[in-house]
Amino acid sequence: MKLQANGISIEYELAGPPDGPPLVMITGLGSQLTHWSEDLIAGFAAAGYRVITFDNRDVGLTSRVPGPGPHPTPDEIRARLKAGEEVVAPYGLPDMADDVAALITGLGYDRAHVFGISMGGMVTQQLMIAHPDRLLSATVVMSSAEPSRIANADRLILDRVGREDYIAEAVAGFTDWGSPGFPAPDSYFRDKAARAWDRGHDADGVNRQLLAVVRSPDRRERLRRVNLPVLIIHGADDTLIGPEHGRALAALIPGAELEIIEGMGHTIPPLLAPVIVARMRRFLAGYRR
């Protein structure tokens, strides 16, 4: 389904009871709504929530936002990042947070629970800062308040490759950053990658998302003033954004709950989904309104 919001067309899907409290799920860098574990969506829906998943700008079936030219190549972006040089981002995390706020409004809700992972967790933080009146609660998973300090950001820049190379690289990434305590077969990640390619993979769009992350401002001082129910979930075995980021984030936000999960890395595969759902149900139990 499509919704015009914040000047772009956003692709979204709904699950769970229509009269359930809304739960908006924000994916990570380059991920589409189809990357979510079906078990995670089904678990939240079974808990009574109206689950809203969507493609962030520049991926999947949502609008591309390239900004004015000229547009640097992946090699040019990679070289500038590696050298510590400035790279212009056509939009930032505040714009992506505005997308989510507009989506909530467009679907007819005043406020919603928000669950964001990795880059989506950074967008969630921006929502907490800029749109607190739109949130019932915020859950930030495998994320950081200090995106500029994520090591080797240049390695995350994608080249324009063919379908099979994209799938192979995606499976390798999931293997490197996966959740060792909750294993999933390569076929699971291969199927996710294949579907993402077929729906609308765009390396340039993913790279623009990464620039939005790298160029985002430090949120730490503003997070100290957040007054919302907040849950921080992080994997003890996250090799992309280490668990120290989750601990630091929880320490910044007054009253934030922190859950460090052993065996969890930088993915939520099917075996991990029930653990996340159970923790979320305990957290959200007091905020079903």
Overall description:
The protein has 289 residues and is an alpha/beta fold. The chain has a single domain, classed as 3-Layer(aba) Sandwich (Rossmann fold), CATH 3.40.50.1820. 39% of the residues lie in helices and 16% in strands. Strands 1-2-4-3-5-6-7-8 form an 8-stranded mixed beta sheet, sandwiched between helices. Strand 1 (2-5) and strand 2 form a beta hairpin. Helix 3 (93-106) crosses helix 4 and helix 5 (163-177) crosses helix 6. It is globular and about 50 Å long. The model has no long low-confidence stretch (mean pLDDT 93).
Task: Reconstruct the topology from this structure.
Elements: E1 2-5, E2 8-15, E3 22-26, H1 38-46, E4 50-54, H2 74-82, H3 93-106, E5 112-117, H4 119-130, E6 135-141, H5 163-177, H6 186-200, H7 203-214, H8 220-223, E7 230-235, H9 243-252, E8 257-261, H10 273-284
Helix pairs in contact: 1-10, 3-4, 5-6
Key traits:
alpha/beta; 10 helices; 39% helix
CATH top-level class: Alpha Beta
The number of E-state strands comes to: 8
Q: Report low-confidence residues grouped into runs of 5 or more.
A: none
Oligomeric grouping of the chains: single chain
How many individual domains?
1
Order of strands, main sheet, comes to 1-2-4-3-5-6-7-8
Instruction: Specify the number of helices.
Output: 10
Remind me, CATH topology? Rossmann fold
- DSSP strand content: 15-25%
User: What is the helix/strand order?
Assistant: EEEHEHHEHEHHHHEHEH
Major sheet details:
8 strands, mixed
